[in-house]
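Sequence only, no structure available. Ideas?
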Amino acid sequence: MSKYKSDAKKDPQFAVVLSDTDNDLAAVQYALRIVGVCNRKGEWRERIRGIRVIHTGDWLNKWNPSVEMLDFFKKLTRTAPPGCDLVILNGNHELEILRRAQQGEFPHLGEARLRFLRSRDLLHVFGRSLFLHGYPTCHLLKFLQQIQREQDGLNRFNERVRKAFYEGEHALFKQEEGKILMGNIKRARQYYREPGHDGETQGVKVSRLLKGMGIHTVVHGHSPNILVQKDNEFQLETPGIRLVNNDNQPRKSLLGAAIVDRNGEVIFVNTREMYWQGGERTFKKRIRTILGIHR
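Reply:
I predicted one. Tokens follow.
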């Protein structure tokens, strides 16, 4: 139960998006403090409303998953104030941890933490934006489109997605025996430029599938950049889709996040943007004004 008094909930209007923090709890807490979501103790700030925190995956290190990071996100999930929430997606690191845990590795995590990890989603839709760990593929989007048709919307698709990838015959990032690989792209530009049997490129198909689902912005991680995020990736290959790579290696860049509103507009939170805005104090004030956080 939240520690905050209940009141009429307001649907989140902004998402604060983290990516590929890889066990770095300090980087997560710093980003959330800069935008005004958390205080210096790593707790939700009082009286904030209308904000969703999303992590697009690889929040843990697959070789040595952090108990502190797991417990931090568990606590934030449990104590979210009314009108705010937390969406933690699993990336290839988390899926590998779950696979190896089934073989008896990582006993230090314990069953309660593994249950929390196992219950995380793989995809999320917020307004007109899709959040996932890697690049969207035609195969994955056709699967989502089928779910959307059957359920008359995407708002409850994650139950089907979890079942398909955690228990079923599909694999998302790594080829597994007897499973269909649906989500991994090693060379994204080459993939999106590749023509199909009908001559239409994969990128054009991806663009059409996303638009058909009402998606115009895709935010992902998984492919590291240097210091800053990549915006409008492959705009020639995926026309009409704003593809945003949010992995700016926060362990090295010290600060990495993005703010996305329900229309898919994006503001980046990184050290270069902070410098251009005149330093940390000015940058924090601007970001918090946008988010409606005034104290």
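Confidence is low (pLDDT under 50) at residues 1-9.
Hope that gets you unstuck.
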